Amino acid sequence: MSDAQFVQALGGVYEHSPWVAERVASQRPFASADALRAAMRHVVERAGEAQQITLVRAHPELAGKAAERGEMTAASTSEQGGAGLNQLTPEELVRLQSLNARYSEKFGFPFVMAVRGYDRQAIFDAMTKRLNNDHDTELRNALEQINRVVSFRLNDLISG
Prior knowledge:
- The protein has helices at residues 3-10, 19-24, 33-45, 49-57, 65-69, 74-82, 90-107, 120-130, 135-159.
- With 160 residues, the chain is mainly α.
- The chain has one domain (3-159): Oxo-4-hydroxy-4-carboxy-5-ureidoimidazoline decarboxylase (UraD-like).
- Helix 4 (49-57) packs across helix 9.
């Protein structure tokens, strides 16, 4: 496939950030899916803090305003729905909105977690725990979680 087709196919695995796929397109062919994941991860690691923060900010809050307005990507909608975040009780929604606000105020970007395989309580626990981190630690955590999301998304694309 052409570079444009490659970016079209894989540009969405990093939420609203096709620049990652654009930067690895010239490295094709990849020996394996793991090699592709590693190349994309390397691009993000080398991007610099400002672009990394922009990448984190491209992700929606968990059950946040984008979810309420139906503006999340299909992948994010599916991932959050799979964790039950589309079925929160009113009390859980208030709690999650409070945690989202505290987290965003402290770090300047939304809480990101690869929620596949987790339930609501585990997500609340992770948010509460990660609020105790410093900015640099939390940026690394957010990027690691994004890489886990990307790994799931690539697996889904490859397996069809």
